[in-house]
Design brief:
Blueprint (H helix, E strand, L loop, with lengths): L1 H28 L16 H7 L2 E15 L6 E15 L5 E10 L5 E2 L15 E8 L6 E8 L5 H14 L10
Parallel strand pairs: 3-6
Antiparallel strand pairs: 1-2, 1-5, 2-3, 3-4, 5-6
Helix pairs in contact: 2-3
């Protein structure tokens, strides 16, 4: 119980710090009169995901950890899962770590991904994925930008393809709506 309370307080504190950081960034940019949207990278192509991600790895989800609601008025939040790094392609992720993923909640209490792409699969225990992610943040050890199911039978093929995406050096276009 104490650990859950500490995790909750830590998560809420980190969210408050992130909001304060965003407000400071907005002030620093000198435009506080217009609303800002999140400047997310273009993840429409694997090469863009490879360039935008701090880490790219083949991972296996070994368990669920929890769920953090983002706002009371929206149905979404962040699910956290435990993953094992099977093969690192970019960055230096730990062997096992907690990974957060944006999800929407369904009326039955289950989760679904809300991204308008087929390249953001829901992370489920017992399955293997190619994941682009950042380490750090307030949702465990990392946060997923991209997740694509990779059956074990095709893991070698997926690893080879992603190695090429990383080596391509393709730069994603700058976001137009910020």
């Amino acid at each position: 119980m104490q650990r859950t309370f500490t995790l909750l307080v830590g998560t809420l504190s980190a969210c408050g710090l992130a909001a304060g950081g965003w407000a400071g960034y907005t002030w620093w940019q000198g435009d506080t009169s217009s609303p800002h949207t999140l400047c997310a990278p273009d993840l429409s192509r694997p090469e863009y995901v490879a360039a935008a991600s701090q880490n790219v790895a083949l991972v296996t989800v070994t368990g669920k950890q929890g769920y953090v609601a983002e706002e009371r008025t929206t149905p979404g939040g962040v699910q956290t899962v435990t993953v094992r790094t099977d093969k690192t392609l970019k960055g230096t992720p730990p062997r096992t770590f907690a990974l957060g993923q944006s999800v929407d909640t369904k009326p039955d209490g289950s989760y679904t991904t809300s991204e308008a792409t087929n390249r953001y699969d829901l992370l489920l225990p017992g399955h293997q994925y190619m994941v682009g992610f950042y380490l750090g943040g307030s949702y465990g050890d990392g946060y997923a930008l991209y997740a694509e199911t990779t059956p074990e039978a095709t893991a070698a093929t997926a690893t080879a393809a992603w190695t090429q995406h990383i080596r391509s050096g393709t730069t994603p276009p700058e976001p137009t709506q910020c």
